Amino acid sequence: MLCIWWTLRVLSRLSERSLLAGRITTTPGAHHSRRRALAAVSLASVGTALAVLGAVGVIDRTAAFFGCGAALLMAALFTAAHVFNRPPRSSVTGDSTLPLWRVGLRNAAEHPGRSLFAIGVIASATFIVIDSRPPDLETIRRALMQRLNEEFQKTP
Questions:
Q1: pLDDT for 96
Q2: What are the distances in angstroms from CA 13 to CA 6, 68, 79, 140?
């Protein structure tokens, strides 16, 4: 219900003609842009603080790792949303690879919701794959040796 209310709240600001034509994009004002930038900086600060607290040992390293990763991912998404919603500054010209990057950024900014979703999914999947990698062989060998020692100590 909350999602339906949120969607209707946003769509109620648009005219019926633009809704029927399929033009449902709105141009955010400077207030939204400042909020996105402030959220990005705040979340990056929280992520950095969690990383430092986890490295020092004040909080559990696993909790710090996941908290830091989530905060930095959200900061990156807010930064991307901020960049996507800026108006283009100049035309795309030149012979280097910079114009190609500009064309890609403009294409991503054409549909910012879709682009942010793709960035979030790819980043989350990468984060999960990196986190769930198997331990190295030395760790497995130590765990097996410890288990064998425990079993030998139990036998009379």
A1: 66
A2: 12, 36, 25, 59
Residue 103, in any domain of the structure: yes
Q: Report the alpha-carbon distance of residue 106 to residue 19 in Å, rounded.
A: 24
Which residue range forms the structural domain that includes residue 146?
A: 31-87+98-151
Of the pLDDT bands very low, low, confident and very high (cuts 50, 70, 90), residue 13 is confident
How many domains does one find in the chain?
A: 1
Longest dimension (CA), the chain: 86
Single pTM value for the model: 0.63
By CB neighbour count within 10 A (0-12 exposed, 13-18 middle, 19+ buried), where does 116 fall? middle
- CB contact at 8 A, 115 and 108: yes
CA dihedral 87, 91, 95, 99 (to 10 degrees): 20
What confidence tens digit (pLDDT) does each residue in 71-84 have? 999 999 999 888 88
Q: Residues 118-135: what's their mean pLDDT?
A: 81
C-alpha span between 97 and 87 (Å, rounded)? 21
The C-alpha atoms of residue 62 and residue 51 are separated, in whole angstroms, by 10
Please state which of the ranges 20-29, 78-87, 101-110 shows the lowest mean pLDDT: 20-29
Q: Is residue 26 part of a domain?
A: no
In a domain, 18, yes or no: no
